[in-house]
Amino acid sequence: MTPDDIRTQVAALLEVPPTTLADHDNLLDHGLDSIRVMSLIETWRATGTDLTFADLAETPTIAAWSTLTC
Fold first, then answer.
1. What is the pTM of this model?
2. Contact 9, 43 (CB under 8 A)
């Protein structure tokens, strides 16, 4: 998954423009909470990406997540 794909999905969950989220921003600082993270995980699992909450919580940035979802 590309950083732009992740940015678009996170922005939709947060109801903010994608341009407000930089690759290395801590997404928790933007209001991403555990419920929304779990929502992303379920969406991504449906497309074959197997991640856990701990995987994403370790480094909650678009840049880090894009390396995990490749």
1. 0.92
2. yes
